[in-house]
Amino acid sequence: MNQHKPFENDIKQILSLINERGYLFGFPKHIESEYKAYLKKRILQRVPAVGISSIIFLIIFAILDVYLLPRHIEVQTISVRLFLAIPLIVLACLWLYFRPPRFYLWIYSSVFLIVGLSVVWIIWFTHINNSWLPYEGLMIIMTYGFVVMGLPIVLASLLNAIMVLAYAFSEPLMHFSMPVYLNNVTFLVAMYFAGIVSAWILSYAQRGQFLHQYLLTLNEKQAKAEIESRNRYLAAASHDLRQPMQAINMLVESLDHDLEDVRIKKLKTASSNMSNMFTQLLDMSRINLDLMEINRQVVHVKPLIESIVSPLKLKADSLGIAFHCNVADEQVHSDPAALQRIFSNLIQNALNHSNAKNINILSQSWQDSTLIIIADDGKGIPDDAHEHIFDAFSRLEGQQDDGLGLGLAIVKELSHKLGHDVKLVNDDGAKFIITLPKATSTKSKESSAQILIVDDDGGLLSQYQQWFIRWGWDVLTSHSIEEAKAILHTKPNWVLSDMYLEDGTANDLFSYIQDMHDYMPNGILVSGSQSKQVQETADRFDLVRLAKPVSPSRLRSALISKQVDE
């Protein structure tokens, strides 16, 4: 069987059964077992309605007994209805509704048979006492058995046959003429066979309904299996492609820092564009496949926006665009990585597409919310484009650039996941307004300027070290978990680690810290994989998770976002 289509044979078989109507008398064995589970669910869903309606009928017939039967007979018949049949029904319904056992069908059918035979006894008892009582009650019982209760057709036929035979052999012939007796029995037998036909028609329709529902279930499982297969491919591709991309970006960053060469700057721009396009494609794929994990926490808006704007100022200067930031030191409740992506995409959209001279970023406090406004004085966005500007791969007419048209689509999807409102208005240019929920106010604190970096890739380790030294940090480095153990006695209150190391994983490293030391540092987990293990490690130790390739601005943003009181 195709490993990506594990349900293909079952789907083909069900389609064949539906098209050829090949289920008149049952299903193949493995499908029949699924149908029995489906039937059990349907029967148990009917229990409350069956029980309540049965009790109502019994009470009505008890009232009729008062008017139709002599006193000495009504006492007996009412006692059977109210003190035998109704308690049995109540107990069985409560049992089946709240704690249905494996042998539920035995309980269900046994109570039906006992109640039916009690009706036969009531008819017999009234007749031997020279009182007249019609057998409509027995016909109602048969209707319940064949139609209302949803019993399997063979079982319903057997139980109703027992009741018809009980009536036929119990009816005292000495009180009725033979023609009357034969008329009654013939009518009940005719009703019995009509009930079998009705039950078979309902069973056939129910089996057809089950097949269509089962087909939908299998197709859903097939789709999920294919999505999981694609997810695994995406995770592997992400890891394999991000590694070389990370190395390229780091090398270009280092060259640009050490050398003044226009060719290096062009290479840096091209590398940055490629990295952005690649990141956008992966982000959109992760969102569409529901792989984007949301980790809400307290986020300082001002340093987050500053970390985005700072590396863009050189590009803005070259385009003749000025940034004007007037953002208060507000704290909001959001996912820092997702919020960073939203702000970054909106700011870069204004930078790359607005033809503006000024980009204004400001904040406003409104009730329990903080409004972040990103506005430009450029050409704006036509009103007729507002409806689809947030669609994936959407581009304005005449727009020419190296982008994919995914930036605003990612903003829309991430905002939806976070529950943040994003509005677009035209006001002497384009203005985006993001509404964020305020967080409980806390005092910010400066992080300790000492960090332990653990990575078995010497090139990445060296580049990380250069970045942190440039930012004024005291940096400790290690190529393995064993080396890190010898350093941890200094108790750095930051640890940055790659997920997969030569002698274990980041989970092993942070587990050691947690078990052997009386403190837990702030942690940053770097990985090119989107596997479940990575997410579980980040959640377990409350780590900031960064996907490769890591840029200096994203790393600084992660550091700033983490610097809040516990």
From TrEMBL:
<dbReference type="InterPro" id="IPR003661">
    <property type="entry name" value="HisK_dim/P_dom"/>
</dbReference>
<dbReference type="InterPro" id="IPR036097">
    <property type="entry name" value="HisK_dim/P_sf"/>
</dbReference>
<feature type="modified residue" description="4-aspartylphosphate">
    <location>
        <position position="498"/>
    </location>
</feature>
<keyword id="KW-0597">Phosphoprotein</keyword>
<keyword id="KW-1133">Transmembrane helix</keyword>
<protein>
    <recommendedName>
        <fullName>histidine kinase</fullName>
        <ecNumber>2.7.13.3</ecNumber>
    </recommendedName>
</protein>
<dbReference type="InterPro" id="IPR005467">
    <property type="entry name" value="His_kinase_dom"/>
</dbReference>
<feature type="domain" description="Response regulatory">
    <location>
        <begin position="450"/>
        <end position="563"/>
    </location>
</feature>
<feature type="transmembrane region" description="Helical">
    <location>
        <begin position="144"/>
        <end position="169"/>
    </location>
</feature>
<dbReference type="InterPro" id="IPR036890">
    <property type="entry name" value="HATPase_C_sf"/>
</dbReference>
<dbReference type="Pfam" id="PF00512">
    <property type="entry name" value="HisKA"/>
</dbReference>
<feature type="transmembrane region" description="Helical">
    <location>
        <begin position="181"/>
        <end position="202"/>
    </location>
</feature>
<keyword id="KW-0418">Kinase</keyword>
<dbReference type="InterPro" id="IPR001789">
    <property type="entry name" value="Sig_transdc_resp-reg_receiver"/>
</dbReference>
<feature type="transmembrane region" description="Helical">
    <location>
        <begin position="105"/>
        <end position="124"/>
    </location>
</feature>
<dbReference type="InterPro" id="IPR003594">
    <property type="entry name" value="HATPase_dom"/>
</dbReference>
<dbReference type="InterPro" id="IPR004358">
    <property type="entry name" value="Sig_transdc_His_kin-like_C"/>
</dbReference>
<dbReference type="GO" id="GO:0000155">
    <property type="term" value="F:phosphorelay sensor kinase activity"/>
</dbReference>
<keyword id="KW-0472">Membrane</keyword>
<feature type="transmembrane region" description="Helical">
    <location>
        <begin position="47"/>
        <end position="68"/>
    </location>
</feature>
<dbReference type="Pfam" id="PF02518">
    <property type="entry name" value="HATPase_c"/>
</dbReference>
<feature type="transmembrane region" description="Helical">
    <location>
        <begin position="80"/>
        <end position="98"/>
    </location>
</feature>
<keyword id="KW-0808">Transferase</keyword>
<dbReference type="InterPro" id="IPR011006">
    <property type="entry name" value="CheY-like_superfamily"/>
</dbReference>
<keyword id="KW-0812">Transmembrane</keyword>
<feature type="domain" description="Histidine kinase">
    <location>
        <begin position="236"/>
        <end position="440"/>
    </location>
</feature>
